[in-house]
Each structure stands twice: as structure tokens, then as C-alpha cells.
Amino acid sequence: MTTIKFTSRQEEIMRLVKEFQPITSEKIAKKLNLTRAALRADLSILTMSGMLDAKPKVGYVFSNRENKISIGENTLTTKVKDIMSKAVVVGENTMVYDAVLELFLNDSGTLFIENDGFLVGAASRKDFLKTAIGSSDMHKVPVGIIMTRMPNIVFVEEDDTVISAAKKIIDHEVDCLPVVRKEIKDIKESYKVVGKVSKTNITKLFVEAASK
Predict the structure, then answer these.
(1) CA 17 to CA 25: how far, in whole Å?
(2) Does Metal-binding count among this protein's keywords (predicted)?
(3) Is the pTM higher than 0.85?
(4) What pLDDT digit, counting tens, does each position of 128-143 carry?
(5) Which helix (H) or strand (E) holds 206?
């Protein structure tokens, strides 16, 4: 058995719950000056590990357990490749309108953009919303214009641990990360997208571990 070491933000969430319990996620987010979405992964980990209890229509309460909860070694050492799901990928020259269709047809929150088969950027629902409410014609603007470009994309590799992926998701406040495989192209490292790991993937793993 191994113990979880909680992040400073998770420790602060536990402190707030101890002091103000029962407390809703909205109130926790307000006290930390964050959005509820930014706290989802933290609250999931704290609930699944048994540190907090979620009371419907009431809020979160502290479970009065020790500050470190033991979970199976297999859960902590699980690799990203074991839980990753299929990534939605489009080409850099895909028009924003067509990219939005791909986003919703695949029920995804983020698209990863490739050029010549390698990762060059990412675009989220927020990026598409900004374009939609602007003056741009979505049928004429390529997704490459609105995406966040490499090297500003946070990613993980197949053999990274799920815990390290979860930490990146929390630290960078994103919903999912591309899972990549490094290749050498034109004497430099490039990255092929082989999947994605999301908050949902990680939460499912902790639910399964808790159930066992």
C-alpha cells in the first residue's frame, strides 16, 4: 500500500471544509478565487480517496480520517496508456465550422490539431465560442488561426503515470491532455497524438479503486 500526497490546493480545500462544513463547491471556489470547473479534479480526488464526503444538496464535509489515505499500489502506478481514450484530431487547415462539428459529433471538449501528422496545437470549446461571438466567418477561418500553438500545449506520454497526468491537469486547469509519442522529424522532436487523458478517465480509475 502507498499513501497519497495531496497538493497544496487540495490541502487548502480540506482546511476550508473543516472550518466551514458543510460547504458547497461554489463557496469553496469563491474562497479560493477559482471557478468550479477548476476544482472538479481536486474534489473528485479528495472524495474518492475518502478525505471528503459529498452530501447531496448540502455540500462537502470532512470525513475525519487521517490526512493520508492508503490506496492500492496498482492505482498509483497505473500508466496513462492504460486509461487513455481516443483523441479527436483535425488538420490545421480545417475550417472552424467543420472543427466545431467534429467537436460535438465526438462529444469532446478539446480538439487537437495536426500538420503533416504531428501535433501543432489545440482548441477548446472556449476558443470556438470566442470565434462564434466575434465577427469572423467560421466557414472561412481555419482552425489553425484560433488554436493554441506548440510549444504551449501541455501533454503526457503513454508511460507517464496517471498521478502525474492528474497533477498536470490540476496545475494547468485544463479538462484533458493529449497523449503523444515522440518521433524525430527534420532533426527535431515532433509528437504524434495517440490518445487523450481527461478528468473523466482519471475519476473512473479512482471510482474503480474505491469500489474495490
Answers:
(1) 10
(2) no
(3) no
(4) 988 888 777 889 999 9
(5) helix 199-211
**Assigned C-alpha cell, 171:** 496545475
For the chain, give every residue range classified as CATH 1.10.10.10: 2-71
Retrieve residue 24's grid coordinates.
458547497
| Beta strands in the chain, from DSSP E residues, in sequence order | 2-3, 52-55, 59-62, 70-71, 89-91, 110-115, 118-124, 148-149, 156-157, 176-185, 188-198
Reduced to 3 states, what is the DSSP secondary structure of residue 183? strand
Percent of the chain topping pLDDT 90: 50
- CATH hierarchy code of domain 80-199: 3.10.580.10
DSSP H helical segments within 21-88, as ranges?
Answer: 25-31, 36-48, 73-77, 80-83
For domain 2-71, say whether CATH 1.10.10.10 is its number: yes
Distance of CA 39 to the CA centre of its chain: 11
What are 56's three cell numbers? 447531496
pLDDT at position 2 is 46
Spatial separation of the C-alpha atoms in residues 129 and 161, rounded to whole Å: 33
Distance CA 204, CA 28 (A): 23
**Per-residue model confidence (pLDDT) at position 80:** 95
Task: Give dist(CA 209, CA 197) in Å, integer.
Answer: 17
Residue limits of CATH 3.10.580.10 in the chain = 80-199
